[in-house]
Amino acid sequence: MSTVTVRHAQGSYPVYVEPGLAGRLEELVGRHLPDRRVAMIADRTVHELYKAGRLGGSRWEPETLTFPAGERSKTRETWSLLTDQLLRLNFGRDSGIVALGGGVAGDLAGFVAATYLRGVPYLQVPTSLLAMLDASVGGKTAVDTAEGKNLIGAFHPPVAVLADPGVLGTLPDREYRAGLAEAVKHGLIADLDYFEWMERQAEQLLAREAGAVEHLVRRSVEIKAQVVSEDERETGRRAILNAGHTVAHAIERATQYRVLHGEAVGLGLVAETALATGLGVASPEAGARVVALLERLGLPTRVPEPVGPDRLLAAMGRDKKNRGGGIRFALPRAVGRMGPGPDWTTEAAEATIVAALHAIS
Ligand SMILES: NC(=O)c1ccc[n+]([C@@H]2O[C@H](COP(=O)([O-])OP(=O)(O)OC[C@H]3O[C@@H](n4cnc5c(N)ncnc54)[C@H](O)[C@@H]3O)[C@@H](O)[C@H]2O)c1
Ligand SMILES: [Zn+2]
């Protein structure tokens, strides 16, 4: 079994990447949440697939709490409903949570685990590509509010992550491609070789060839694990993982989440690379390569709705990464390299941002 270790202030946890893990869910949960009364939290789509044996074939039936699938469920209201249910069912301090599903289930169940009775342990079992290669790793949990994404949350590392690429077979194409955008981000921010591998393997990735998908998940997990292990609380370099995300969050808000998170990240990478070029931080070549790779992976490079730069700029106003007056971005200098600046972010003036947003709208 291939294992990537993530370090954090209180210790470390393993991320297992291996086809077939989901079929051994009961055994692995027993190992990582020993002697705990387990509550599984999943969205309804994923739970139906799980019950039908279509997510790895596990026959285990733990007590399960569900919520409607989709980003619109990632709220304090859903968090209240889930924690109220746990209280009514008398889950105590000896509870353990299993987060089964995409990034929404992971962020939501993780925030439940972070707060329930002041914190109980939890295990991430990502079932979307995006959750498997990005969201399940790093211990950030959160819910969205009307003011913006992920504004209420906590750092709460899981006890383990079980990433089984074998469960991706049922994932709709659009969701699968959305996950690829976070992998493009990983290549752009930290690994030119990986980016070039994706350029060469675009067709195999789109066809979901097993070997290619497994390598993709493993390499992305390694990159994310390394970055978050160095800087758990995002006081410095972890900010590079936010590449594309300042614009992405604005697109998600402005389209009321009709553009998926991964799609918005791809668009954000295009706009923020254009911004880096506009600021003289990156060469135009980096932007052209990002656009070309996203296109080959079947991802949008223009916002599919008529939201202009001004609306996006307004939606960016309250992004939590902003400090003081200006809007700050984690910008690429070249494919595989981020910076400059001691805190890995650069402030940009509104006119420069608007000019860059024209690249996607
Ligand atoms: N905490 C972090 O570090 C972090 C990092 C990146 C993204 N995120 C968050 O992750 C969220 C996006 O995650 P997502 O794209 O996985 O969204 P999601 O959880 O909504 O899952 C996408 C859709 O796929 C379905 N699905 C999941 N697995 C499936 C499977 N195996 N077969 C069939 N359908 C399946 C779900 O029911 C859902 O409808 C966003 O809220 C984003 O903010 C968090
Ligand atoms: Zn993301």
The overall pLDDT average reads: 95
How helical, in percent, are the residues?
A: 40-55%
User: From the structure provided, what is the oligomeric state, counting identical versus distinct chains?
Assistant: single chain
Order of helices and strands: EEHEHEHEHEHEEEHHHHHHHEEEEH
The best one-word shape is: globular
Outline the low-pLDDT stretches. Answer: none
Number of helical regions: 13
What does this structure look like?
With 361 residues, the protein is of the alpha/beta class. It has two domains: 2-169, Rossmann fold (3-Layer(aba) Sandwich); 173-195 and 230-357, Dehydroquinate synthase-like, alpha domain. Helices cover 44% and strands 19% of the residues. The protein contains 13 helices and 13 strands. It has helices spanning 25-32, 44-51, 76-88, 103-115, 129-135, 173-190, 192-206, 210-230, 245-254, 261-278, 284-296, 309-316, 350-357; strands at 2-8, 11-17, 37-43, 63-67, 95-101, 122-126, 140-145, 148-155, 160-163, 327-329, 332-334, 337-338, 346-348. Helix 5 packs parallel to helix 6 (173-190) and helix 9 (245-254) packs across helix 10 (261-278). The longest helix is centred in the middle third of the chain and has 21 residues, at 210-230. The mean pLDDT is 95. Nicotinamide-adenine-dinucleotide is lined by residues 43, 45-46, 49, 55, 69-71, 74, 101-105, 107, 127-128, 130-131, 134-135, 138, 140, 149-150, 167-168, 170-171, 175, 178, 261-262. Nicotinamide-adenine-dinucleotide (NAD) is lined by residues 43, 45-46, 49, 55, 69-71, 74, 101-105, 107, 127-128, 130-131, 134-135, 138, 140, 149-150, 167-168, 170-171, 175, 178, 261-262.
